[in-house]
Write a structure and sequence with these properties.
Largest sheet: 7 strands, antiparallel
Structural class: alpha+beta
Strand content: 35-45%
Length: 319
Amino acid sequence: MKNLFLFLVVIVIFQISCTKESAKPVVLAEKVTYSVFADNNDGNLPILSQFYDSDFGSKILENIKTNKTQATDFAKASLKIETINEIILSLQSQFSKKETNEFFNELIFNETWLYDSSTMKIEKKVKDLSFFYQCYLPEDSLHLDLKNRFLFKINLNDSVKAEKSETISIKAEYVVKLSACDSLFTKLVGFDTKPFVKSLINKALKKEITPYDYFSEEPKMIVENDILLSLGATTDTVEVENVETGEPEIKVVKNEIVYEEITELIFIEKWTFDYQKNIFSKEIIGYGPVREYFKPYMDDMKVKSVPFILRFDIPKKNS
């Protein structure tokens, strides 16, 4: 009986651990639309390593030509390859660009986001992708105006597993704004950002998830005090005048976390594409909150910082 009891206990523990490991992600956001500028930004975000070496744009055009991929315009009407080529030729004559990929320098993603609430790991399902060409056109003799020229949109397959994927960016690093008011293309449907941000930060502070230093290439865990400091949750001492005595005295001021200062999420991903099945896959290497705030004693100067990131490229240690 004793051996049977121990055997049953082992089975129960195994089932519990399997349940935790295989917890199904739930919908975090029904629809997230945002722009990623794919041009060379001289080390500034966004950075899409090896994107222009991937022939991504040329292969998409080839798929449209052979009817493997359906291209549409803004009104969702079908676009033929001849029409798209005319648009690109017009741009080439206007801007003297040679490589086709150079005209696909702004990507508008439309995605559904899933996540595991215990690990805060996000999974992105890319539903469709629009291609724009972002450029500066003369507004007058002295000024240039930033314009976005729509090229075409392709619908993607997010319901099957990719089989023959090719890497189009070994490291895509960019931000997604958490307010639709902050960007022309940003749309957030069914995404309650405030509780998500609060949960992300609080879990990191409670060590329920492991926070890492964003600026360190090697995995470097950061402690609670460093996170609080980077979030502005500090204790300061200021000298004030006592209204009764007129004498100076020291006052302790405790600053709380202002969750509304988290205005963006920064993502680090690997991008792949299955040209046979039209699947755009994003493997999230890591992500974290971006804080935007006024620098102390400089109320006219806003700065950004990344308090921490979560990393999913670190092998789990066997217990």
